[in-house]
Design a protein that fits this description.
Length: 150
């Protein structure tokens, strides 16, 4: 007898009759939520989230298709951290800007190189070979300086 009353209470507690069902959200309120979600103020976004959360505690058969779409968009839609990094068409724009800057830098380098003065004599091959010979005659070590014989 005691177990039957517990079973009845459990059935009544788990049934939707025991819970006060929140009112259904209107289609005008949550319709086309994807297009206007980012323009809504944060307070309105939070109220829609809370109202949908209370509606989703009911069986899913009782939710309207608009409520299901809104709940799916809020849970998995492209907003907040899931918003795409680049808008459509921005990737190609970035590619062409980077390509243009790269080609421009090549032309700038070539122009500066053509307008520059000739290289100093110390950068020639003969000068470098004579410098190497001189350092060898002085027992120079390029890693620790001159090596002195003691």
């Amino acid at each position: 007898m005691f177990t039957r009353s517990l079973q009845r209470q459990a059935i009544r507690f788990n049934s939707t009759v025991a819970k006060s069902a929140p009112r259904a959200l209107s289609n005008a309120y949550i319709g086309k939520l994807e297009s206007r979600w980012t323009t809504l103020p944060k307070e309105d976004q939070q109220t829609i989230i809370e109202e949908l959360k209370s509606r989703m505690e009911l069986p899913w058969q009782e939710l309207s298709p608009a409520e299901k779409k809104a709940a799916y968009y809020i849970s998995f839609g492209e907003w907040g951290p899931r918003r795409p990094l680049y808008a459509p068409g921005e990737k190609s724009q970035i590619f062409w800007i980077v390509t243009g800057c790269f080609i421009g830098s090549i032309f700038m380098f070539a122009g500066i190189k053509m307008l520059a003065k000739p290289a100093p004599a110390s950068l020639g091959r003969e000068w470098q070979e004579k410098s190497d010979e001189y350092l060898k005659s002085k027992n120079a070590n390029p890693f620790s300086g001159y090596s002195q014989i003691q």
